[in-house]
Write a structure and sequence with these properties.
This protein is of the alpha+beta class. It is built from ten helices and four strands. 60% of the residues lie in helices and 13% in strands.
Length: 210
C-alpha cells in the first residue's frame, strides 16, 4: 500500500518543496560560489567542515542553544564559534578553512546563526547537483525494514529525477513524530505520506467545519 502510494507520488514530483528559507539559500549560494572559485578539493573540504559542524551542533545541546540565541554579545558569539570550530576539527585537529570561518563570521554579524542548519543543507544540495548526485532522505517513525527500503529504492531509480543523476544515495532518518508512513525528501522536493500529515489535514478540516 505504501509503495503504491509512493509510486503514484513520484509521477508528480513538484507537489511539495522542502522548506529551506530564502535567507539560508542566499548564504548557501555565497559559500558554494566561494569554494567553487578555489577548486573542487576546496568544495570537498568545506562540505566536510560544514557537515562536522552540523553534527556537533546537533549533538551538543549548549551549542544548539548558542546558535539559536540572537541576543548574545559579539564577544560571546566569537567565543561560541571558537568552541564549534574546535569540536568539529576532531582528533586530526585540521584547522577550519577561512571560507567556512568567513561564512560563520557573516552569519554571526548579521544575527543569522539560527539559519546554520538550513545553510548547510542548502550547500549540500548545491554540491550534490554539481557532482550529479541525488541524495534521498526517507524519514519514518521507526527504521525501515530492508525489504521495504529495497522496494522504495527500486521505485526511486525509475523516476525521471533519479535517471538524470549520476548516482543515487538513499538514507533513512528516524523521527517518531511522523507517527507512521514516510516523508521522502530529495533535492528541493518532498513527498509527504506520513500519518502525522494526514492527522493534520483531518484536524484542519474539522476546524473549518466548526
Amino acid at each position: 500500500m505504501l509503495c503504491s502510494s509512493f509510486r503514484s507520488a513520484t509521477a508528480s514530483l513538484g507537489l511539495g518543496r522542502r522548506a529551506v528559507s530564502t535567507i539560508a539559500q542566499k548564504y548557501s549560494k555565497a559559500v558554494y560560489s566561494a569554494a567553487l572559485s578555489k577548486s573542487p578539493q576546496t568544495i570537498t573540504k568545506v562540505q566536510s567542515e560544514l557537515n562536522a559542524i552540523s553534527n556537533v551542533i546537533k549533538e551538543v545541546p549548549d551549542l544548539k542553544a548558542f546558535v539559536s540565541n540572537p541576543t548574545l554579545s559579539a564577544k560571546d558569539r566569537s567565543a561560541g564559534l571558537a568552541v564549534i570550530y574546535s569540536r568539529s576539527e576532531g582528533s586530526k585537529k585540521e584547522p577550519v578553512s577561512d571560507i567556512t570561518k568567513n561564512l560563520f563570521g557573516v552569519l554571526s554579524e548579521n544575527g543569522r546563526l539560527g539559519e546554520t542548519q538550513g545553510v548547510i543543507e542548502g550547500f549540500n544540495e548545491l554540491v550534490a547537483k554539481y557532482k550529479g548526485e541525488l541524495e534521498v532522505v526517507v524519514t519514518s517513525a521507526t527504521p525501515l525494514p530492508r525489504d521495504l527500503s529495497s522496494r522504495l529504492e527500486t521505485i526511486l531509480k525509475q523516476s525521471q529525477t533519479a535517471q538524470q543523476a549520476k548516482s543515487l544515495k538513499i538514507s533513512n532518518k528516524v523521527n517518531p513524530s511522523v507517527l507512521g508512513g514516510i516523508v521522502v525528501d530529495f533535492g528541493d522536493k518532498s513527498i509527504d505520506l506520513s500519518v502525522s500529515s494526514r492527522v493534520n489535514k483531518l484536524n484542519n478540516v474539522l476546524q473549518q467545519s466548526v
